[in-house]
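Posted in: Structural Biology > Protein-Ligand Complexes

Title: Requesting predicted complex, zinc ion in pocket

I'd be grateful if someone could produce the 3D structure tokens for the following input. Sequence and ligand are given below.
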Amino acid sequence: MTSLLIKNAHIGDGERTDILIRDGRISEIAPGLEAPGVATEDAVGAIAIPGLVDAHTHLDKSLIGWLWYKNDIGGGNLMAMIDNERAMKARLGLDPHVQSMRHALQTAAYGATLIRSHVDIDTDGGLRALEGVMQTADKLADVVEIETVAFPQSGLTIREGTAELMDQALAMGADLVGGLDPCGVDRDPKGHLDVVFDLAEKHGKGVDIHLHERGEMGMFSMEEILTRAEALDMTGLVTISHAFCLGMNDYQRVEAMLARLAALDVRIMTTAPASSPAPMVKQLMAHGIRIGAGNDGIQDTWGPYGNGDMLERAKFIGLRNNLRMDSEVKTALDICAGGGAEAMAKPRRALEVGAPGDVVLVRGETVVQAVVNHAPRQLVVKGGHVTARDGKPLMEAP
Ligand SMILES: [Zn+2]
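-- Reply #1 --
Done. Output follows.
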């Protein structure tokens, strides 16, 4: 935690002002501030936005830094893609620590100060991916805060020994219990969710479940998730990632489910996918549901897309949700910043006194124009510590 004075920044679309960060928190915002002995950065009129938040990604398995991966497995067969990824990781000898350093530093250079990473736990890799990402989280503690989810990517009940590894991962320090398509992957919704919630209860941790299942199947799995969460009184401790089924074309069904999600303060993480039904953010917000966003896996065996830029993700949220007015685009940005942090039960990233000293300077005419153009990042600051300049991280990736 450190101190920094940022001079001559526009907060949002307001007048030029100064931002003083003391001991990692924003302590004062006003023009003409002076702080003798405190390091100073001149924003030269750049726009200050809060630190960005990637609330759903996979740091352990991006192929950043490798030669281009030629993908010849289509998206139609989920299990084939899962098996292919596990095989490719072994064949390439992918080092989860090295890959997570590359991925996290790139995301941080785009302005992220907080990341939630799902990390593969399976009987081939054991706990190696988690060890690597936790090592990265330690090394980058001053650059970007990294939270981990123990994620059974290859299935839980279909692969004997995975539940025991998940148990060990949580004992080792994984922050949340992950899960994945209880019907679609394990084809055993009761078995899968019983393990997930037993582990959550045993370790006193929250859950974050990938739910790609669409339509009624997704709704069924969601009901099973909520029934267990209600029984364990897990208000505010459950996250459902993707939740494609909430984008189904049955308004009354979805509205009733949103009311139930809101009652249990379930958080929804979205990527605002262009290729799938998806939860619509304004509809969720009308129910008071907290929403975060993430880039999900980037440049991996699943697909070639993504770069770690949460400002670009804010634009995708705007496009997917038909957000056109400036105020709406600012909402999309908030989902990728302060709103995402709140959805992770972390302090809200915001440019106000008392908030974490996480500030990103972008070059643009207005905040909305910066989102639309994913404007260049001039400076990234976490807790008063400068972490990236002109789009480049100050720490070198391996
Ligand atoms: Zn994911």
